DNA sequence: CATCCGTGGGA
DNA sequence: TTCCCAAGGAT
């Protein structure tokens, strides 16, 4: 029953050892070639592993290198993205591949700073690629790691809505000095959050640091403060855009406006979303006014 | 810094 | 059924 922050060495040891035994076999983990890691990370942004698996395999089969992807129209990436959601990620991955070919000799860059310049690659993804693909020492702070730290170290049920300075400093202070160990730590803490220290009904009986966990020691206090706001869905532009995209994505060729219109009844919202999709580059207009994925 | 951006499955 | 949320990023 620790009264204060658990000793980092003990955390490192136990969580990394646990990872050695319980780590999942994942295609981007078993063969962590940089491009594979990068593709997986973009796909995994806000999308569960099980849904990513089949799309990832097909993607890598078709586009084994950034150059392979960059050589095709962005619309092909959007179609191959399927129903993973947030299709702008497909556009960003295509743009990133193009940038990798143009500016990095076709090789996924290895440093956090270079990775951060790529479209679709933010703080988390840059750190993840540097760490998982290149074994670099990087602060990998995703939703899983944040939850683990919130509970074990801070003693609260959930992390704050956004990463603040103090939280980043904590994560930095916890990162092992040794490069290899830092990379193992990043993967291990993520996996612990994904498999054991889950958002709902955590499996504390299977946790290697349960006896060091401040949240557990405190008796699992419920989250207090403002309620955690979920995202609305029904009737939103997001739902509308998704419906419109599905029609074009699942069609063989260009789709007539009337066909697209049938998928969303609210005309004003439909037009607004159509405009935004064209503006985003997720859709294109043919000369005769039909809708296609971008060429 | 808050909001927007898809989708589907489990509790 | 409804609600929650899953390896975030861009603006």
TrEMBL record:
Gene3D superfamilies: Helix-hairpin-Helix base-excision DNA repair enzymes (C-terminal), Hypothetical protein, domain 2. It comes from the Bacteria. This is Adenine DNA glycosylase. It comes from Aeromicrobium tamlense. It catalyses: Hydrolyzes free adenine bases from 7,8-dihydro-8-oxoguanine:adenine mismatched double-stranded DNA, leaving an apurinic site. InterPro entries: DNA_glycosylase, Endonuclease-III-like_CS2, Endonuclease3_FeS-loop_motif, Endouclease-III_FeS-bd_BS, HhH-GPD_domain, HhH_base_excis_C, HhH_motif, MIG/MutY. Its cofactor is [4Fe-4S] cluster. Pfam families: EndIII_4Fe-2S, HHH, HhH-GPD. Its EC number is 3.2.2.31.
């Amino acid at each position: 029953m620790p009264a204060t922050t658990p000793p980092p060495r003990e955390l490192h040891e136990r969580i990394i050892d646990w990872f050695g035994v319980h780590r999942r076999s994942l295609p981007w983990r078993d063969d962590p070639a940089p491009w594979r890691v990068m593709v997986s990370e973009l796909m995994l942004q806000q999308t569960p592993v099980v849904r990513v698996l089949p799309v990832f395999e097909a993607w890598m089969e078709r586009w084994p290198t950034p150059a392979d992807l960059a050589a095709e129209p962005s619309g092909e990436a959007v179609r191959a993205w399927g129903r993973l959601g947030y299709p702008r990620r497909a556009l960003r991955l295509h743009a990133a591949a193009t940038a990798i070919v143009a500016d990095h000799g076709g090789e996924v860059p290895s440093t956090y700073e270079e990775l951060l310049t790529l479209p679709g690659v933010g703080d988390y993804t840059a750190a993840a690629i540097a760490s998982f693909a290149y074994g670099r020492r990087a602060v990998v702070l995703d939703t899983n790691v944040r939850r683990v730290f919130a509970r074990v170290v801070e003693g609260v049920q959930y992390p704050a809505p956004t990463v603040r300075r103090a939280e980043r400093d904590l994560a930095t202070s916890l990162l092992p000095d040794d490069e290899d160990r830092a990379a193992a730590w990043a993967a291990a803490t993520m996996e612990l959050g994904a498999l054991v220290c889950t958002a709902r009904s955590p499996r504390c009986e299977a946790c290697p640091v349960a006896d060091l966990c401040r949240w557990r020691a405190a008796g699992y206090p419920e989250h207090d403060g403002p309620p955690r706001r979920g995202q609305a869905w029904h009737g939103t532009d997001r739902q509308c855009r998704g419906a419109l995209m599905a029609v074009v994505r699942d069609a063989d060729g260009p789709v007539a406006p009337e066909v697209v219109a049938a998928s969303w009844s609210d005309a004003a919202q439909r037009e607004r979303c159509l405009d935004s999709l064209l503006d985003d580059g997720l859709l294109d207009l043919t000369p005769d006014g039909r809708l296609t994925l971008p060429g």
